[in-house]
Amino acid sequence: MDIVREVALKILYKIDKEEAYSNIVLDETIKENRNRLDDRDIGFISEIVYGVTSWKLTIDEIIKRYSNIRLKKISPWILNILRMGIYQIVFLDKVPKSAAVNESVNLAKRYGHKGSRNFVNAILRKVEKKDYETFFQIENPIERISKTTSMPIWIIEELLKENDIEKVEEICKASNIKPKVAIRINHLKTDKQKLENLLKERGIIFQAGKLKDFLILEKVKNIERLDLFKQGYFTIQDEGAGLIAKIVDPKPKEVILDACSSPGGKTSYMSELMGDEGEIIAWDLYAHRVKLVEATAKRLGIHIIKTECQDAMVYKEKYKEKFDKILLDVPCLGMGVLKRKPDIKWKRKPEDVEEITQIQQKILETCSKYLKPNGYLVYSTCSIFSEENDKIIDKFLQKNPDFTYAKMEIPDQNKITENLNKIQLYQNDETDGFFICKLQKINITI
Predict the structure, then answer these.
(1) Integer Cα distance of 426 and 437 in angstroms
(2) CATH number for the domain running over 181-236
(3) Helix (H) or strand (E) holding 183
(4) Is 382 considered catalytic here?
(5) Residue range(s) occupied by CATH 1.10.940.10 in the chain
């Protein structure tokens, strides 16, 4: 029995049955099996899990083409064995079809019965790479995009409200790009030249990021096990997320609120930009997530972060006009990070849009009261839906005349489109998708 594919199968089964997130289950399972898996095994397991999760819609359409049994009637074990086999045959050039078929049949022997084994064998032997290519011939553009990019139709229709069909197709294609590993240099412990030398000593290939504090690593595995990470010389962060912290423009000795701070990437970057001088109050709704912020701060050698378990929607009088600056990286549907968290596509539903926007609006209304006159508030999401972004800001400004757009300075000559004091980043091969808007509280005198 191929232990690597079996581990991947168990992870996919758990994702389906427990509706768990792929990255969390993958990390937990790898830790449990670390003594019998090498780096190559872990890489292949990750490839299978993220690949099947990303391409599930497209793969299931191929299964429907050859199966006389409806998907809902197929055992979850057998269904995921089929998905794994088809992903290898259609999307992985490095795996021979014979290996993909034979190993899938072996798994079916263990997790099904004789009929299951024959069923898997019959379907996979019919599948070819051209099964995917035929989806490009679909005339209806929405259906074509859905099946060629493995994107639910409702997400495509939501994107079409603000974008033309060509732009929507580009966005959907980008959701399947394999994300790069970007790291942020911690200047509290090291400098760029020193860290670059240390990476070279360890044979790690890298290139400069668009932001000066960032490096892009190539072909690196298990980065969190690297001694330099454990020592706090760097942290892992997408450059788009780093840009948000830079736009807050935190200064030494300021008092800043990060109202939705976990796991602490932006919180810690603001602390580093402040030279660890001042105070950052970091909130999160759940105690276990607050601990993630604390762990990040400890590893990076940061002392100015004070964490609190606090609901950002609930007003606290003691914080009225307390902060020089506020970061609201609010909860969102996460449509800008699908290449890192592909299971979001299958967990979200159209009705979630209204529910999340009510939360976002409430957080913005509540936390805006904590800003000092002439202070700055940055609102951000990792989403690309206008309902979560522009429309939230438009509603807020209509109700709050003491707030206005603030000019955003794009740091480090970053080539990003700036439009009406708002930035919308879309997923591409360099960054995740983010919305960023900066507001200022005007000191109105009557």
Answers:
(1) 15
(2) 3.30.70.1170
(3) strand 181-185
(4) yes
(5) 3-133
Query: Which token pair is 242?
Result: 């780093």
In the structure encoding, which two tokens stand for residue 70, read together? 């409806």
Structure tokens at 27: 């990390």
Cβ atoms of 410 and 368 within 8 Å: the answer is no
Contact present, 211 and 243 (Cβ < 8 Å)? yes
Reported residue count of the chain is 446
Residue-wise pLDDT tens for the chain (446 aa)? 588 999 999 999 999 888 778 888 888 888 888 788 888 888 899 999 999 999 999 999 999 999 999 999 999 999 999 999 999 999 999 999 999 999 999 999 999 888 899 999 999 999 999 999 999 999 999 999 999 999 999 999 999 999 999 999 999 999 999 888 999 999 999 999 999 999 999 999 999 999 999 999 998 877 888 999 999 999 999 999 999 999 999 999 999 999 999 999 999 999 999 999 999 999 999 999 999 999 999 999 999 999 999 999 999 999 999 999 999 999 999 999 999 999 999 999 999 999 999 999 999 999 999 999 999 999 999 999 999 999 999 999 999 999 999 988 776 644 444 445 889 999 887 889 999 999 999 976 54
Strands 371-381 and 434-441: antiparallel
Superfamily of 239-441 according to CATH:
Vaccinia Virus protein VP39 (3.40.50.150)
pTM higher than the cut 0.85: yes
- Which residues in the chain are classed under CATH 3.40.50.150? 239-441
What residues contact 139, with CB distance under 8 A and at least 6 apart?
none
Marked catalytic residue, from 172, 367, 382, 437: 382
